[in-house]
Hints:
Elements: H1 13-23, E1 25-28, H2 34-48, E2 59-63, H3 65-68, H4 72-78, H5 85-95, E3 100-101, E4 105-109, H6 127-131, E5 143-148, E6 160-161, E7 184-185, E8 193-197, E9 202-203, E10 213-221, H7 237-242, H8 245-248, E11 253-255, E12 266-268
Antiparallel strand pairs: 1-8, 2-4, 3-10, 4-10, 5-8, 5-10, 6-7, 6-9, 11-12
Amino acid sequence: MSVMPSTDPRVDLEKLKRDLDIFGYVVVPNLIPREKAGRMSQRLMELMRRDPEHEQKPLQNLHGVFNALETSADFELFVPLLDNPVALALAEYKLGMNFQMSISGALWLKPHAGSAGFGWHADVPMGWFGANKKPRVDLCFAINCLWMLTDFTQANGATRVLPFSHRSQSDPGQLGEADYANAVSAEGTAGSCLIFDNALWHAAGSNTSDQHRLGVSNPYFPIWLDGGNVGWTPVTRKTYAQLPPHVQKMHLHVLDDAASGVSAGMTKRGY
Length: 271
């Protein structure tokens, strides 16, 4: 799959590429309409409220957003998170052609949740290097697109990032908060997208506000990486059938609907 370059006149794609290389992340404002982002956030909250322990959880995580969708209207609403031309152009720039998509996840930090989110980390598979005492290689294993379906502010727990850390060749480890003095909050309005190298050190912020903070994470990885082998769950066959053909091409593997894990029921699909 070769991605057509974005024709959005508001976007300087070459500058985004440079900033992604240098800083390890970019925030692209208003890639989807605010109204549509709001409808997505309300639908995801509706799905997550079905959890019997919903009221007791300051944070909820929905692993496999598209596997949780129920209607054709759901898919029509959410597919623009998967095929945005700006996001795809940056993914192809960093990963090469025919890149694949990992499982989407939603993270909901509720009002006054505090620091209930994830601490400092780099995304899969970067932890393998530290766990096995191996030096990192200077290679982009994945690009993550974190869609802001509500406003992301420092007060409501916007993702914190440490610029340049994707070049550090190391893991966050057990560093103290003072070691992240140069971290910044990736703030943006609903409909914006934080796009970052998965080696970048990042963490969920602390929600001290009376606002909800909800985002959807869509990672993309190169064709040569075995996503299942590093723990990324494919979409189900039922979900795959609901996706448009150009999005199906980003899902080389699908999971049999009745399978309970990656190791069982995996099917490889051609292009």
